[in-house]
Design a protein that fits this description.
This protein is an alpha+beta fold and 189 residues long. It has one domain: q2cbj1_9rhob like domain (Jelly Rolls), CATH 2.60.120.620. It contains three helices and 17 strands. The longest helix has 12 residues. The relative contact order is 0.25. The model has no long low-confidence stretch (mean pLDDT 92). One of its GO terms (molecular function) is L-ascorbic acid binding. Keywords: Dioxygenase, Iron, Metal-binding, Oxidoreductase, Vitamin C. Pfam families: 2OG-FeII_Oxy_3 (PF13640).
Length: 189
């Protein structure tokens, strides 16, 4: 595994975070579940997002992958210290024509332990597709102009790690299917 800083302090890539076999097994696992249209704020909003997702709570997976990534993750964000991966995983599947328009990821909070997510951890499970890049925008002006400052092409097994507050999108998949596995990195005061 190698860490590649894309926007220092904000966005980085962990190349070869998962093996091809691990990625294939996760895709098979997801296909055994029921994908549904992703929601925005609890509502279907196909003008913003029309990809499909499956939610899975898997603490052993979160613990195992956190141990693999911990030495590369930001240890402190917004005065909070690194704790763990959220056990809630989202498998996303994008088919041709599907996208997730520019947005910022919301934080997940636990009331009982006062943990808050600050960072997105997104693993590309395949790369046999056209399109589907993750595009980053510095501000709403770049979003309006459709002018990203950074574009990341899916690479099987790579983990894309970035602050929730950054505007980004999952570009339209032109051909093939795109599979990703996403969770949150949790922090605590």
């Amino acid at each position: 595994m190698t860490k590649e800083e894309l926007d220092p302090g904000k966005i980085f890539l962990l190349r070869d975070f998962l093996s091809n076999d691990e990625c294939a097994a996760l895709i098979r696992r997801s296909e055994g579940l029921t994908y549904e249209v992703g929601t925005v704020g609890g509502m279907v909003a196909e003008g913003i997002r029309n990809n499909e997702r499956v939610l899975v709570d898997d603490t052993p997976l979160a613990d195992a992958l956190f141990r693999r990534a911990v030495h590369c993750l930001p240890q402190v964000v917004d005065h909070r210290r690194l704790v763990r991966f959220n056990e809630r995983w989202r498998f996303y599947r994008y088919r041709p024509g599907q996208t997730f328009r520019p947005h910022r990821d919301g934080s997940y909070m636990t009331l009982e332990t006062y943990e808050k997510s600050e960072v997105t951890f997104l693993i590309y499970l395949n790369d046999n597709l056209t399109g589907g890049e993750t595009r980053f925008f510095e501000d709403m002006d770049q979003v309006a102009r459709r002018s990203p400052y950074l574009t990341v092409t899916p690479t099987t097994g790579a983990a894309l790690v970035f602050l929730h507050a950054i505007w980004h999108e999952g570009a339209v998949v032109e051909s093939g299917e795109k599979y990703v596995l996403r969770t949150d990195v949790m922090y605590k005061l």
